[in-house]
Amino acid sequence: MAAYEVELTARARKQYKALDPVIRDRIRRALLDLADDPAPAQVKALAGGGGLLRIRVGA
Amino acid sequence: MAYITIWIRRLLPLAVQASPRAASAVCGLRVFAWPTVPAGPYPDHVTEMPIDDAAGLASAVHDAAERGQVVYLTDPQGRRIAAIVPASVAAAGTAAIEALEDAADLAAGEEALAEWDADDRRTYRLADVDAELSES
User: What pLDDT is attached to residue B132?
Assistant: First the structure.
């Protein structure tokens, strides 16, 4: 069972649904990985971001 | 070239969660595309050469390494599509780009979080959103 429940904001939900299906699948897999580990090695903490983290998925 | 940034904020730290799934992470997306570089004019110390000029590439690399020369490589239409630059210039450019991207991501994340606050912190479970997509 995943450690985290991944939730999207309204804006992210809208953007996610509008993505090309192939790209959306890549994003889905990245999000599901985050549910297991929300801070994997490739995540970067944004300086001055008060806990905001960033992960990139190539497109 | 483009990529999608996923920003994440954990809503509860792991240390205080009551059960493993009590914690959640709110995520947002931001699509980023590399900006195009405007065409010249360029300083005198910058030169150009066709990208298929194989014989000239080695010379351009030496010029970059030894004299700090920047050489733009052009496509058949004369558009600058790549460059040979000294490693120090590349490192400085990469650092500058990363700083700009960090600032843009931070601004986008903070804007999205403010919007999320204004939306009474409403969230949508990823599984539910995927279910909506499969039904449509």
Answer: 94
* Chain A: closest CA distance from residue B119 (Å): 8
Which of A8, A43, A58 is closest, CB to CB, to B124?
Answer: A8
Domain regions of chain A by residue span: 10-54
Per-residue pLDDT reduced to its tens digit, B94-120: 888 888 888 888 888 888 888 888 989
Q: How far is it, in rounded angstroms, from Cα B1 to Cα B36? A: 10
Q: What is the ipTM of this complex?
A: 0.90
CB contact under 8 A, A55 and B8: yes
Which pair of structure tokens corresponds to residue B106? 């931070």
Asked if B126 and A8 touch (Cβ cutoff 8 Å), the reply is yes
Instruction: Give the pLDDT band (50/70/90) at residue B45.
Output: low
Could you tell me the pTM of the whole model?
Answer: 0.63
User: Which residues in A lie closer than 8 A to residue B10 (C-beta atoms)?
Assistant: 4, 38, 51
Count of CB atoms within 10 A of residue B120's CB?
Answer: 7
Closest CA to B64 of B45, B37, B38: B45
State how far the Cα of A36 lies from the Cα of B14, in Å rounded to an integer.
Answer: 12
* Of B132, B134, B116, the residue nearest B27 (C-alpha): B116
- Give the separation between CA B17 and CA B58, rounded to whole angstroms: 59
